[in-house]
Amino acid sequence: MVNAIEVSGLRKHFGPTKALDGLDLTVRSGEVHAFLGPNGAGKTTTIRVLLGLLRKDGGDVTLLGGDPWRDATTLHRRLSYVPGDVTLWPGLTGGEIIDLLARLRGDGGDAKRRQELIERFDLDPSKKARAYSKGNRQKVALVAALASDAELLVLDEPTAGLDPLMEATFRELIAAERQAGRTVLLSSHILAEAEALADRVTIIRAGRTVETGTLAEMRHLTRTTVDADLDAPVVLDGLPGVHDAVVDGTRLRCEVDNAALNAVLTRLTSAGVRTLTCRPPTLEELFLRQYSERAGLAQQP
Amino acid sequence: MTRSLTNAPALVKLALRRDRIMLPAWVYVVLIGVSVNAYSFSKLYKTPSSQAALVASAQSNPALLFLYGRINGISVGALTAWRFGVWGALFAAMMTIFIVIRHTRADEEAGRLELIGSARVGRQAPLVAALLTSALACVTVTLLLCAVLPLIGLPATGSAALALAIGTTGLAFTGVSAVAAQLTSGARAARGLVFCVLGLAFMARAVGDASGATGPSWLTWVLPLGWTEVLRPFAGERWWVLALPLTVFAAGTWLAFVLSARRDHGAGLLPDRPGRPGASAALRGPQSLAWRLQWTSLAGWTAGFALLFAVCGAAAQGIGSLVGTSSALEKEFTRLGGQTAIVNAYLAALMLLAGLFAAAFAVSAVLRLRAEETESRADPVLSGSVGRVRWGFSHVVIAVAGTAALLAVAGIATGLGYGLRAPQSVTVGGEVARMFGAGMAELPAALVIAAIAAAAFGVLPDACVGIGWGVLGLAVLVNLFGQTLQLSHWLLDISPFTHVPRLPGGTVSAQPLVWLSVIAVAFGAAGLAGLRRRDIA
């Protein structure tokens, strides 16, 4: 199967600032691909190059088999885009903007689907855009994108302004899109979102690709951080899947592979748990760990 | 009350920091405009007889009275006040409009005031800060003029009167802008509203000044810009006139506070009504979107043009009547070519003004592209199946068609106004046709200015707003003030409006119009070509 997006060695600078410095990204047709990175890593710049809004300084970029700069107009018929910070024309209503965006893409839009999405997102389409909150502006852009028949959806941090209920709705809708065989590029800085939705993940930092692969391949990235205060000290040595354990009397802090969570928690409860927090690591923690691991590897030999 | 003003000084500092380039630039423009005029008058018209000759030729030329105001006396000071009093006040007023709206409604619309309002900042503090910043700019202009004009050799009393006349006009429009910022929910509309008032003020005094002894000269007294003339700087100052703009300032400030205390954050006085839940069939592409975004502004301009030029056209009729007071005037009158020639000169000056105003619309319509780009509203259009050239062209079409429509309206309205009141020797239809032609002759020149803005948008996007308005400002300077300043021909020739035949009355020649059109098309094409190649912000 042909890849929907192929980027290799992409470089882009703004004056002296290097925004992208040899970035690689491959999105296969029909998959949901999460594009992760901390703020300022270059996610939006990459997407703007893919949309033909920015001109690349180096590297190869192929979008839906074409050149995103040269063939922008024809390629855009086949994709829909939701920007990270949605700004709309203040004097137009949400409904007008949804229809306008569909017409600018070159299809009339599916009226039934449009109505269904507006109801699911609980959006009032007759309000002027200036009266919308950030979340509602986001919904306008999402309805426009999801109602289209585009084969590729490019979503730049699409859940940034949505409440948890709407985020759940969004996840359901994206899951359905995957079933229907649409390709989705989903940029985010929330690992949990990628875990819930994505087939494959690309992680970037400072304009470069750090990791790419399926989630199973990246299992080592999805550890859980455990903080516990116990009745008695506990020894975790010998348990597989436990990393960076720090024991300070009855206090314990460690990182646990998800597969080993059950065994660790059994050990903890047998010692008696006073307080316990488990949370997935933030992206920053992942990067920090990865860098320290690399530094450690470099020193060992 | 004091609690609602908490932290206003910090907001003033913020405003000054944000305007650190724009504010000095405005102050500089007003200061330089007035003092350069004063300086060159003192150099060019040294002897009383040369001053009297200038006064005589100006008194008998209603076109000049219309553009600059009435002449109150024969001295370098009075001539300076005549030539740049009204215009200095006009620039000061524009400065305050931009300052006040920028720090009130524009910030509110962009959501910045919400962030500020959530901090320990009083409810009315942003409004107070905007008013203080604007007042500070007016005071600075006044003080600098008070200091500079005597250095050129003008009497101190008159200098103070002229400086105060300009400064207080700024204050009056500070008050008007503060009220407008409460009325509309969009900054663009608020600015438009105040510019309507400003245009009305200019026209009221222009008609009042040019219509002669028998005409409605009381019009000069009605609105702020005329007050700079009736204050009579350098010619027996009427100091009490200063109370008029100060009253407007006080009343506007009070009203703005009352309105602002009553409304919700982000809301105008009129609530937003729900609109269509879906787009009509007409809204289907970039061209209809550009039209949708710009038609309200064009409609406002058109209404303003129709009213303005109808009234000014009607005023042309009274023009012969101001002659006859002195033999010097009489002689000058005949030298200029008698009544017909003088009426023609007046109508031609009107059309020049129409051309400059229409160019202002054209520049704003073209620069809408830049606003759309920087506010990220170009992205949704360009990520649709829309090429850049098509998007850029959509707003250029509005600029071109709108400018043509405005000039047509100016010509037709002037023709109607003049024709309906003119003696039997002229027909209304004939006048309308003649003035329509005269108005359309300004189109290529106005479009050259807009095309330069478009070229800058394509090639130097970061500087395009400054370039667009700067070029227009240069044309205003050259065509309204160049001749009395005896600028070199080389400098006068820079402005495209210098090359437009003076109609009616002048000789029609198609050649310059063709050349101007070619230049406009070349600049426009360069802009669109540049847009194709560059990054979108």
- What is the CATH superfamily label of the largest domain in chain A? P-loop containing nucleotide triphosphate hydrolases
- At CATH level 2, the architecture of the largest domain in chain A is 3-Layer(aba) Sandwich
| Number of separate helices of chain A | 9
Query: Rg of chain B, please?
Result: 24 Å
Structural class of chain A: alpha/beta
> Rounded to an integer, what's the Rg of chain A over CA atoms?
22 Å
Please report the distance between the alpha carbons of the first and last residues of chain B. Answer: 43 Å
What sequence of helices (H) and strands (E) makes up the elements of chain A? Answer: EEEHEHEHHHEHEHEEEEEHEH
Low-confidence stretches of chain B: none
Number of DSSP strand runs of chain B: 0
State the major sheet of chain B: none
Most extensive chain contact? A-B, 41 and 34 residues
Question: Helix share of residues of chain B?
Answer: over 70%
Which CATH C-level class of the largest domain in chain A is it? Answer: Alpha Beta
What is the typical, i.e. mean, pLDDT of chain B? 88
- Overall spatial form of chain A: globular
Strand residues, percent of chain A: 25-35%
Description:
Chain A folds into 2 domains: 3-219, Rossmann fold (3-Layer(aba) Sandwich), CATH 3.40.50.300; 223-279, Alpha-Beta Plaits (2-Layer Sandwich), CATH 3.30.70. The mean pLDDT of chain A is 87. With 301 residues, chain A is an alpha/beta fold. In chain A, the strands form 3 sheets. In chain A, strands 5-6-7-3-8-9 form a 6-stranded mixed sheet, sandwiched between helices. Chain A has helices at 43-50, 72-75, 94-105, 111-120, 134-147, 164-179, 191-197, 261-271, 283-299; strands at residues 3-14, 17-28, 32-36, 58-63, 79-82, 152-156, 183-188, 200-205, 208-214, 223-230, 242-248, 251-257, 273-279. The relative contact order of chain A is 0.14. Chain A contains 9 helices and 13 strands. By secondary structure, chain B is an all-alpha fold. Chain B has a domain at 1-268. Chain B is 73% helix and 0% strand. Chain B contains 22 helices and no strands. Chain B has helices at 8-18, 22-44, 48-59, 62-68, 76-103, 105-110, 112-118, 125-152, 156-183, 187-210, 224-230, 243-262, 286-315, 327-336, 338-374, 378-382, 388-421, 428-441, 443-459, 464-481, 489-492, 510-533. In chain B, helix 1 (8-18) packs across helix 8 (125-152) and helix 9 (156-183) runs antiparallel to helix 11 (224-230). Chain B is globular, with a radius of gyration of 24 Å. Classes of the chains: A alpha/beta (301), B mainly alpha (537). At the A-B interface, helix 2 and helix 3 of A face helix 13 and helix 16 of B.
